[in-house]
UniProtKB/TrEMBL annotation:
GO molecular function, one term: voltage-gated monoatomic anion channel activity
InterPro entries in alphabetical order: Porin_dom_sf, Porin_Euk, Porin_Euk/Tom40
Family: Belongs to the eukaryotic mitochondrial porin (TC 1.B.8.1) family.
Protein name: Mitochondrial outer membrane protein porin 1
CC per GO annotation: mitochondrial outer membrane
One protein family per Pfam: Porin_3
Length: 234
């Protein structure tokens, strides 16, 4: 569901390499089944973050635990532990997530990292309601598959601040496959950000994505598009 609105767009990690007008990162990930039902995963975004994770999945429940480093541009790297779990069926699922900052300099060990949510799944419609930021923010999202053959789908997401009683974000998006190996995506939010991408796959192992984004609410002197190129090898 969130792939339509967030995955592969022109988004830069807080910590990244810079060469003149180019900002770039390197993503690495791998997974291995340790025993039946238990997987180990390693993900790393160089130089921003990285983590080791263990996942256990069964028919009606799932559990994961991870430990890693999370980067901030001004504060450096903080060790973070994360625990999440869910129970439910193919139709209805209830889950929760807790992140714990292990750094000694952290004054509040658990801050803005306690989340819980409920999701409803059907063949064509997926909807979810989640509480974020220690239950201070409510997020509702939905995904509707228009045509499975062309991967045509639309999605929407709304964020509501429960403390100030106001809507803080609305995002809508869509995707469509022109050809079996060519995917188009576009999104728009209430802050004036418009983004789009085209992703071309070459076989099952390699893909190239060209993405762009522009904020039409910025002043004219600051209004310029962001363009990114990413390559993935599986």
């Amino acid at each position: 569901m969130l792939d339509v609105l967030h995955k592969d767009y022109a988004q830069q990690s807080p910590i990244h390499f810079n060469y003149r007008f180019l900002n770039w990162n390197l993503d690495l990930s791998c997974q291995e089944e340790l025993v039946h039902g238990l997987r180990g995963l390693f993900t790393c975004n160089i130089p921003d973050s990285g983590k080791l994770e263990i996942q256990h999945l069964s028919r009606f429940s799932g559990f994961s635990a991870s430990i890693g480093l999370s980067g901030e541009a001004e504060k450096g790297y903080n060790p973070v532990a994360n625990i999440s779990g869910h129970i439910g069926t193919r139709i209805l699922t209830l889950g929760a997530n807790l992140a714990y900052d292990l750094s000694a300099s952290s004054s509040a060990k658990i801050t803005n990292n306690l989340n819980a949510g409920l999701s409803l799944n059907s063949p064509y419609l997926v909807a979810a309601a989640t509480l974020h930021d220690n239950f201070q923010t409510l997020k509702g999202s939905c995904y509707f598959e228009v045509n499975p053959l062309t991967k045509t789908a639309i999605a929407a997401e709304v964020k509501y601040d429960l403390a100030d009683y106001e809507t803080i974000g609305v995002t809508v998006g869509a995707q469509h496959a022109l050809f079996p190996w060519t995917l188009l995506k576009a999104r728009l939010n209430n802050n004036g950000n418009v983004g789009g991408l085209i992703q071309q796959k070459f076989g099952r192992k390699f893909s190239i994505t060209v993405a762009g984004e522009m904020n039409f609410n910025e002043e004219d002197k600051e209004k310029f598009p962001k363009v990114g190129v990413s390559m993935a090898l599986k």
